[in-house]
Amino acid sequence: MKKPLIALTVAVYGVILGCHAMLGSEALRLYDLKHQQELEPVASLERLAEARVILVGEHHAVTAHHRAQLEVIRTLVEGGKKVAVGLEMFRRESQEDLDRWISGRIDEAEFKPIYLDNWNFDWVLYRPIFRYARQQGLPMIGLNVDRGLTRQVAYHGFTSLNEDQKAALGAVTCDVTPAYRDYIRQAYDAHVHGKMKFDNFCEAQLIWDTAMAVNADRYLRANPDTVLVILAGVGHAQKPGIPAQLAKRAPWPYLVLLPETPGSFDTEQVDEKMSDYLIKASSRF
Questions:
Q1: Are 220 and 252 in contact (CB under 8 A)?
Q2: H or E, element range at 11
């Protein structure tokens, strides 16, 4: 049965691709980092369909990255997948507000202040994704933790948390790959951090990764027929970030997609240890 099912998947996605062409828009373009080649559009869509978790990285203030994220979500929905959107941008305790947004029980004017309480980047950047999720009835899942917790760890370390907080996350240490540690070091050097020690700063980064992985794992277990598309900064989305923490909890099939960014996230800077694919820039994005 497996081969006919694959053939059917290709056929379905071929129809979808044809619809994109008729609309005059460009299909999602992925560059395969393992095989060092750009995929044909149908192959790109096929690869997405194989995963339970798809992490799509972003530089928060770049509009093109959010357009690419929306295209990934739209591609899965049009392919018949049941999709939920996991958000670095929202804390878990704001889940009720996200549910109200998706169900239409709150309008945009009421929702925007809630968004800004959770995230400090312009609403306009994320508005198309949130509106599409609402139109399609796609659950949006708050994955993040209270910023006060990460601030405490950044200045005082993981050991400063109370026992309940520690138990919810498991042990968090700055035990990461050398490349990821270097990445965190660059972020540390770019911050105004006063008396903050690097190891504490690193643990705070891992708090984000771990909390988002814990919350993603919880959602995946409760919704076994859903693909979770996680939107997060490129630092968290890359393989040593959220995916490494997620893999400690369950072997969820996942893919990492990072936006092609000349000089920082391109074929010279990124390999398969960081990401599975680069999202190629296009006139649409």
A1: yes
A2: helix 2-22
Asked if 55 contacts 245 with a C-beta cutoff of 8 angstroms, the reply is no
Q: What are the two backbone dihedrals, phi and then psi, of residue 256, each rounded to the nearest 5 degrees?
A: -115, 130
Q: 10-24, 56-70, 113-127, 192-206 — which is least confidently predicted?
A: 10-24
User: How would you list the strands of the sheet with 227-233, edge to edge?
Assistant: 37-38, 30-32, 277-279, 254-259, 53-58, 227-233, 83-91, 140-144
Q: Specify the residue for token string 């990401």.
A: 275
**Any alpha helices (H) in 79-177, and if so which ranges?**
95-103, 108-118, 123-136, 147-156, 163-169
Using the predicted structure, report yes or no on whether residue 13 has a pLDDT greater than 60. Answer: no
From residue 280, alpha-carbon distances to 1, 63, 127, 156, 232 in Å are: 34, 14, 22, 40, 18
Q: At 56, which amino acid appears?
A: V
| Segment 149-200, tens digit of pLDDT | 888 998 898 999 999 888 888 888 888 888 889 888 988 888 756 678 899 9
Mean pLDDT for the chain?
86
In whole angstroms, what separates CA 10 from the centre of its chain? 25
Q: Enter the tokens of residue 283.
A: 């006139």
**How far from 141 is each of 15, 74, 97, 244, CA to CA, in Å?**
30, 17, 10, 20
Tokens describing residue 76: 């899965």
C-alpha 252: how far from its chain's center?
A: 15
State percent of the chain over pLDDT 90.
58
- pLDDT for position 194: 64
Q: How many CA atoms lie within 13 A of 263 on its CB side?
A: 0
Most confident segment among 37-41, 125-129, 160-164:
125-129
- Any idea what the Cα angle at residue 121 is, between residues 271 and 106, rounded to 5°? 120
Residue type present at position 35: H
| Helix, strand, or coil (residue 211) | helix
